[in-house]
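Entry 12.
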Amino acid sequence: NPDWLAVDGATLFVSENSVNDPLRVARVQVFSTAGEYLTEFGNPGDDAAQFIAPTGVAAANGRVYVADETR
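Predicted 3D structure (tokens):
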């Protein structure tokens, strides 16, 4: 389930957090503003480039900022 959306130019970033789901998802998916899937980044964990509970995303000037609720 998507939690937050951010747009930078023609790119849409969607943070997804399902800490209570047994399949455990913690990532940011990237789409074109036309809805085409481009890529995703992040996975569950507490190492670099991993998220425990990504609860927000913002994008500006080619950078993406992800808020991780537990950090």
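Annotation: The chain has no helices and six strands. The first strand starts at residue 2 and ends at 8.
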